[in-house]
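The methods section describes the discrete structure representation at length, but only in general terms. What matters is that the chain and its backbone geometry are given together, residue for residue. Nothing conveys this as quickly as seeing an actual entry. For illustration, here is how one protein appears when written out as sequence plus structure tokens:
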Amino acid sequence: MGSALSDISKAGVAVWLDDLSRERLQSGSLKKLIETDSVVGVTTNPSIFASAIGKSDLYQADIVKNAQLTTEEIITLLTTDDVRNACDLFLEVYENTKHKDGRVSIEVDPRFARDTKATIEQGLALWKMIDRPNLLIKVPATVEGLPAITELISKGISVNVTLIFSVARYKQVLEAYAAGLKRRVENQEGIDEIFSVASFFISRIDSAVDALLPKDSNMRGQTAIANAVMAYETFLNFSNTPSWKDLANKGANLQRPLWASTGVKDPSFDPNLYVLDLVAPNTVNTMPEATLNSVKNTGAFNHALVPTKLALSKSILAKIALAGIDLDKITDNLEVDGVSKFEASWLDLMKSVNAIAGGLK
């Protein structure tokens, strides 16, 4: 039996794990995934940290020891320690992939999603605090986040742009990344060590669209992949523009599309749908462990690559529009909802930390 994880890696997909916890680090489970399951990076978000810290006693001593700090300071201490240790664990991967992979992401406080200045300030602070070259600072692709992306890139900070749902917003993300690189070139600063990924969310789009389709519709479970295929076409087109080629000649690295939210929400779908149907060169797929294991157990990969699906994807999106579904409105709402969910997770995390700190604060 072949290995689908190995196969898709050879096809150009960087396999990342969408999870991190102190337990993973201390038990060696993350190290094992690197060694045996082609995992070359990790993504985190407020929901992942809320779950990790809220459900484990491995953080308790550090919380109690630092109870005199503010809740935000304690959370920053806990999360940056985990991310720094994960960065160290991936250092060999980072070197072996010429700094493209071996990356670990940490997100700015989601409450800053509509605040450009606060996002920039915290992005700079987290970069300095963790102090690892294979770090990625996660910035939401809100309208307010776009200038923060440009500014952080211009400061030499590698960025993971998150919560992208629409192709139109993705184009703006690509432009924001290039603008930061251009600013560095104009200042005669190097750009060859700056890396970025653009996290395009998948499953939530199908959940929203399918809720508007008849239960027996043969269009269910097709919109998200079609939308992602169009995003990949945008990526290819952008990488072939004269302005990007000029940056590439100066050492610029591609901002790879990263497929996020790749665990299926509908139990009637193939659990590997958002992985095996989104294989393409120069992409990343970050998976929860259940999805990773499911893909691992499928055997060899034999699906068509994304670039062959362009015509079909355009047809699918046209049919969705003809069904009266406004995909632009859906993706706008998903961005608002995505920010709101991460804010809620952050507040849950604060409650967990406060409960442990108790009367010590």
In short: The mean pLDDT is 96. The radius of gyration is 20 Å. The chain has 17 helices and eight strands. The longest strand covers residues 135-140.
